[in-house]
Structure formats: structure tokens, C-alpha cells
Amino acid sequence: MEVCYQLPVLPLDRPVPKHVLSRRGAISFSSSSSLFGAPDPRQLSQRRGAISYDSSDQTALYIRMLDVRVRSQVGFEPERGSSHPYLCIDFRTLHTRLGCGSASSAPERRVHRLLSFQRYLHSSRLLRGIPQQIPLHLLDGDYTGQARCMLEKVGTWNFDIFLFDRLTNGNSLITLTFHLLNQYGLVELFQLDMVKLWRFLVMVQEDYHSDNPYHNAVHAADVTQAMYCYMREPMLAKSLTSCDILLGLLAAATHDLDHPGVNQPFLIKTDHYLTTLYRNTSVLENHHWKSAVGLLRETGLFSHLPAEDSLNMERELGSLILATDISRQNDYLSRFRLHLDQDNLCLSNASHRHFLLQMALKCADICNPCRPWELSKQWSEKVTEEFFQQGDIEKKHKLEVSPLCDREANTVGNIQMGFMTYVAEPLFAEWARFSDTRLSQTMLGHMGLNKASWGGLQQEQTSVSEEAEPSTAGTNTENSAAAIARRDSNTATGGTSSKEIPQGSRES
Questions:
Q1: CA distance 120 to 110
Q2: pTM of the full predicted structure?
Q3: 3-state secondary structure at position 271
Q4: Number of alpha helices (DSSP H) and beta strands (DSSP E) in the chain
Q5: For the stretch 4-34, what's the b/e string if a residue is b when 16 or more beta carbons lie within 10 angstroms of its beta carbon?
Q6: Is the pLDDT confidence value at 376 over 60?
């Protein structure tokens, strides 16, 4: 069990006040010892409850001098009744940073990740003896200039997440999610600690792999923005509760957390430990969910809520993230279609609202073909490059190349046209039946235009390649469609297929 110690900063060149070295919880010690001076022989070995320590250990003495407090709260704030700020810090972190004990490179990296951004900055100042608190208004630094202007139009479907990411210096996921949570009033409503929330979002963004062409923090920000657009649709806007909205935004931001850039079949054939852990079932989605829960608990974002409420939110978060598994696409689509045929969706029913959030997140996850061509084309190229990189690895290690991952046998255009035909169009057609709005028609319109654009590019490529290989160039799109059909067939028979499909069709 980890214990957080909140440490008030005291000058090291002054005598230690007697009230500082006193009994704290189950730990007590004498205030007669001087700092870093010769230890009292009577105190060389002391035991308090289940804790033993050598009072000649300068680090232990330093911690005791700092008025050790065992607390569950994580944060950085002024100590009540004192002018000294304090910092919640893990004991092992302090021990490592003070240079006491031997620490391998792996634990050192882990400690650095545990500290993360502001906590790392604050701890550095603490250990340098600079008790300076960073004002919270600095958290709003990204809300200036052009980025702030873009946030004023965050609900528009042509929102350029690539430009926004550049304007926020690569912090699009943090800035966007924080803004949306604040705009809905969820920070105040759920009494979320501002620093805990910011730290959580920083750690979420850090846990996305920036070297993934597609499954990175920018994709997560794009999905979060799309989820916001869907939740503003009249059918949902008038029905969703504040808890629904909070879960929807958090699920969108974390739905691909720690994605390795390869799909589930790749993990299975390389005997990855995650496949054993999750028994080859929604491996990546389960990992994304558990990673998100880990960060929620590490930062204590919901620690102030009743335990039952916190656990329930974690479970519902998992239910949303697991819905993005493409191998269950037909199941969700069939249920959605049946509800619409029977016209029995009741938005006052919590389970029906949750199901609609699942469908909204599925749409947000694969909405790239529905964006304007300038944005959709960039996403198409990125997801295809990630497929091809996996294929290159498989070739290098003499593994069977996964469908759609061979750059010599596929093109961006044929992959995208197959994906739109067999995956995106059926889903968004049903979504338009549920929410027949201007946004739904706009998305279907963009998808039709994008499909035609890819078809035109394919024809140009075909006319060129026919001169060299007239018999094969015209079958690329058919091969891509066949690969998708095989994936759907595997799903129907209980097979484990995954992100063999482009545009975020999930194995996350």
C-alpha cells in the first residue's frame, strides 16, 4: 500500500521547533535530536507500531523533521494554520530524489511518471528549499490567442484538431477536455479538485504514444470533440444527466489510452502478456479501461466521492470504452437498429441513455470519413500508415502479415473505400435515423463526397498502373472489401479480429 506524505517546507538552517517533532498518528519520535547532528544513542533503534527505523538515518530524520503527515489527499495547497505550503509526495519518491538507497533505471522512470508535470515541478522546488506555490491561474495559459478563439467554436463539425494541437503546443487533449468539463460546470458540480483534474489530464495525454501515427493524443482529442458534438444533439442534450456527460467526455478522452499502435491479432501471435491477462477478449479495450481507472485512482480525482459512487463510475466508464471494440460492431448495430425499428428508446431510462452514449462514442471513434475532406484525408493517411508500420514489423519478424497492413498490396484509397462501405455507412445511417438533424445529414454528405474523392484518386492510380499491371490494379478495392468481410465473418463466428479496419475501428 502506498502512503502519501504531505510535507511542510521548513528552512534547514534554523532550529527545529519542538511542536514539529511530535506524535503524528501511529508514528512518534523525540524532539531532542538535532538535525543531521550526532544521534542520541538511546534512539539509534526505535520501533513505533509496525514501523522500525534507524534514527541515525539522515533521510528518516529529515522526514520526521518535516512534520510527516499521513494523508489521503493529493494536491498542493497552503497548510491550514501555517504559512508553509506542503506537497503530497510518495515516500519512495523523496527517498530516491534525495539520493538515498539504490534505485534502478526502471524505478526512476516510474517515479518520474508518478510525479508528472506540475507534481514534478512542485517537488523539485520543494527539494531545493523553495516553498513557492504556482498560482492556479497559470492553468489557463493555453486559453489565450488563437486557441481560445477556436474553443469558442468547439461545437462546430469542421473543427480542425490538427491546427488546435499546434496552437496549444501539443496539448490539445488536455486543453480541450478541461475546457469542456469546465464549460458544462462539471468541475464545480462534482467538486473536482482543480489540480487533481489537471494532473489527471496531463497523465492521460502522457500515456498516449506520440510516435503512433494514428492512435495518439490528437486522435483522443478529436474523438472527444466529436463526442461533445453528439451530446449537444437535441435528442441527447435534453436528456443526459451531468453524470452521463462527465462519463461521456472522460470515456472519449481515455478510450485508446496507452494504445501500442498494433492490433489485437498482432498481440496474440506475438504472445503479448495482455492477451493472457484478458484471455484474448477485447484485449486493447480492457487495457485502455484499466489504464484509465489506474490514473483516476492514482490522482484521486474521485476520492472525495462515496466509494460506491466512485466504483460505479469506473464500471460505467469501462462499459463505454469496451463498446469501441470493432469485433462487437455488429452486435451493437443490431441492437441499435432493433430499438429504432420498435421505436422503444426511452431517454428517461438510465440504461437506454447509457446505450446511446455507447453508440455516440462508437460514432465519434470512427467519424473520420464524415469530416470535411481536408481533415478526413489526413486521418486516412495516418491510420493507413499505422497499419503499414505493423505490416513492416510482421514482415521483419517473418510473421503472417495482417489484412490491410501490407503496403505493397494496399493503398489508402482502397482501404478507406472498403471501410466506409462496410463499417462507417451502416453505423451513421442508423445514427441519422435516431437523430435526424443537420449534423447527421452533414456527416453523411461529407462521407459521400469523401468516398467519391477516394474513388477518383483510385481511378487515376488505376489508369497509371494498368499500363504496368493491367490485370491487378482494378481489384484493390475489392480485395480491401473482402478483408473487411472476412473480419465481420470472424466476428460472427466468435473469432478475434480487430483493428484490421481503418479509421479507428477499434482494437482501439
A1: 12
A2: 0.69
A3: coil
A4: 22, 6
A5: bbbbbbbeeeeebeeebbeebeeeebeeebe
A6: yes
Distance CA 89, CA 7 (A): 8
- State the distance between the two ends of the chain, measured CA to CA, in whole angstroms: 32
Active site residues: 215
Whether pLDDT at 50 is above 50: no
Report the distance separating Cα 67 and Cα 84, nearest Å: 11
CA–chain centroid gap for 298, Å, is 14
| Cβ-Cβ contacts under 8 Å for 364 (sequence gap 6 or more) | 223, 224, 226, 227, 230, 252
The set of cell numbers assigned to 380 is: 486516412
Sheet hosting strand 85-90, strand order edge to edge: 70-71, 4-8, 85-90, 76-78
- In the numeric block, the cell 501500442 is attached to 260
| C-alpha cell at position 258 | 496507452
* Residue 70 neighbours by CB under 8 Å, 6+ apart: 3, 4, 5, 24, 25, 27
Cα distances from 168 to residues 173, 216, 378, in angstroms, run: 9, 16, 19
Which 3 state secondary structure label does DSSP give 215?
coil
Q: Which of 101-105, 348-352, 358-362, 377-381 has the lowest mean pLDDT?
A: 101-105
